[in-house]
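Reopening this ticket.

The earlier resolution said the output was attached, but the attachment link was broken on my side. Pasting everything inline this time so it's all in one place.
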Amino acid sequence: MTAVANLPILNISAYKFVQLDNVAQRRESLLQVCQSLDLRGTILLSSEGINLFLAGPAEAIASFLDSLRADPAFADLQTKDSYSQTQPFRRMLVRLKKEIIAFGVDGVAPETKTSPKLSARELKQWLDEGRGVRLLDTRNIYEYDLGTFAGAEHLNIDHFREFPEAIKQLPAEAKQQPIVMFCTGGIRCEKAGPMMEQAGFEQVYQLDGGILKYFEECGGKHYHGSCFVFDGRVALDPALQPTGNLLCFACQAVLSPEEISSDKYLLGQWCPRCYREPAERMREHLQQREAAIRARASSQPGCQPYDNVRQIYVPRRYAGLPLIDFLDQWHPPTTVAQWQRWIDAGRITAAGRSVRATRIVKEGECFEQSMPGTYEPAINADIRLIYEDPWLVVVDKPAPLPVHPSGRYNRNTLSSLMADAYPKQKLRVAHRLDANTSGVVVLCRTQHAARMVQPQFSDGRVDKVYVARVHGHPTWDATECRATVSADPQVGGGRLIGTANGLDCCTLFQVKRRDADGTTLMEARPLTGRTHQIRIHLSHLGYSIVGDPLYLPDRATGNAHTIDVDARKMCLHASHITFTHPNSLERVTFQSHIPDWCR
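Inline output:
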């Protein structure tokens, strides 16, 4: 074998149905031979035989075939040959398969019986003479579309496994007529022919060597188009040369040179056949991603008991306190007695060691709280994806759903669920929403985006619009509240209003509609971002939010923090958010859907 017309790469395809044993050892031996000769391609091995597609220098291919034919099982193996300028395969694979050509029909054994074979030259002579035969293309639809024999029939199949059912479409008279079936290299017909005979077809012939052998011996007469091949050349013309077609990575369509030059073709992304306008692609992508997120949330991952370990870091303002005092001030809803019981039981540790309640804590020090058999409350799984780009993910958070792990929640949180949906990235939540508050939440996909976006929230450069339904009818149409809010939570998780050392706050309120049921729909625009700010300010003004479990009517305080998933929703919703995009540096606005209680 020598290179032809300065084409240095010899491409061969071959198959043989023969009973094989020790296929695992044969696999290792074949792989070693191919690697030593620097060949590339694919070899399929099974107990029913071998199917191979290889490429390399002619001398290396000859050496491989000498080695293979030294095995009595393959002594008479015949190949179909063509030459190319470049190597069409990227790597060398030798795989073990149940079948060397997937068919899935029992009782078909080509190593013992096949249909009569018709040589390429005999078929050409029959077609030259105009004999009355039915030409049956057994290949898949995308191969048929690229080229076939003149007048050939196709069964409109997408996979060879569909062939047994598809032949039922043929008319009854076909069972008495001569049928010549063909495929790329002949291997499919080895199984299709006997199967058709079992189904009652009386005159079935198979084209020996398939289309490639016909091209090699007869050229392109009676054949229209090109032939799909399963390597980087994609398609060959009757001269066995690449046609310039490519395969779309996205939809696997075979593309013509004209389609490749289209402005709707992008290598590795899309082609004119699967191209979607950017807005449509975004919608489809968001729908797929959203479905995955909601499926994960619907599984309620925190509702199956598990052993949870929560990390507790010491903020600067608590440095120097005894551990028990730090824990009490850090999380007031938990009693000192409960913290002490956990410390005594070894559930609070530092660097894997138990600690004492009197230990003095340091800034940035990390303690771990072990919580075996953790069971989290159920959450609302109706997470909606509003927007995604390489820098941001924007979601419409339902309620109840905590944003961050805390208290009774860890896995059943937005940040945990989103981490599952984006496993190769570290998403950073740009701001907070209460578990009971629904609406827009912004997450950053890169550290750079987080550095650009998070300070906008802390510096008050973000425009936020909320809608709320409150008890009562305010006498004013618009007002401003500047009451201070305490920095630290109280027992029960609430904050104090109007304290002398509280944090400065400002919220603008505007009445949108006073309803007959005694409630009012209003818009809230927080100019600062304190915990529970809108809820506290409305309670302070005497108009508590409908469904709020903590800030009750008449300025009373409840003892519940996060509502149950089946309870009445708290009527506070983050409707719009506007900030500067971390990449374009333009102001962008994202809007959530309107809750039913707003309508």
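Reporter confirms the inline version is readable. The longest helix spans residues 278-298. The chain has four domains: 9-96, 117-244, 276-304+378-599, 306-374.
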